[in-house]
Each structure stands twice: as structure tokens, then as C-alpha cells.
Specification:
This protein is mainly alpha-helical. It has a single domain, classed as Orthogonal Bundle (DNA Binding (I), subunit A). Helices cover 44% and strands 10% of the residues.
Length: 98
């Protein structure tokens, strides 16, 4: 069962995951990671420790395209989970107000 209701079937999810695997092999992605910076917290991180995060998660209708994937440290990627950008901002604002 999918966590969110979209008109996608399992083949759509598999296709997006396959595209993401291909992007990870690309020189474009390797150059993004070589900068060694997390998109979210902007901390310097070893390129080998950066993960691919979908800004709009695949489970929420996002695509595996260059405009929708960013390098993220494991900590930020785990915290963001399947949040949309505005939900992520709300989460960060809630942390700041504590």
C-alpha cells in the first residue's frame, strides 16, 4: 500500500526509481556530490556520504529529474522523509521557535 494516493501504479514508481539510479551514475550527479554540500543544511559532507533526495518525493508525485533531485546528508534526508518543500520549511520553523 502506498503512503499517499496518486494515480500512479507500481510500474510508475519502478520507472522513477530506475531513472534515479541512472541519474546517480551520471557525471552531472557526480559533479553535484563532488561539491560536498548538503542542499538542506549546507554543511560540508564527504561526497560519498551524500544521498539523493527528491525535493518533491516520488511517493507524492515527484519525478526523478535533474530539477527535482538534490544531494543531501543522511541526517537531513532522514528528517525530511516524504515532506513537500513547504512542509519541510514548516518543520524547520517549528524547530527554530523552540
Amino acid at each position: 500500500m502506498k503512503p499517499f494516493a496518486y494515480d500512479w501504479d507500481d510500474d510508475d514508481y519502478k520507472r522513477e526509481r530506475r531513472k534515479a539510479r541512472e541519474l546517480r551514475k551520471s557525471q552531472w550527479w557526480k559533479r553535484r556530490c563532488a561539491k560536498g554540500r548538503c542542499y538542506y543544511c549546507e554543511k560540508t559532507t564527504k561526497a560519498s556520504e551524500l544521498t539523493m533526495d527528491h525535493i518533491i518525493p516520488v511517493a507524492r508525485g515527484g519525478k526523478s529529474t535533474k530539477g527535482n533531485v538534490v544531494p543531501a546528508c543522511k541526517s537531513c534526508n532522514n528528517k525530511k522523509k516524504q515532506l513537500l518543500p513547504m512542509e519541510w520549511d514548516e518543520y524547520l520553523n517549528a524547530l527554530d521557535s523552540k
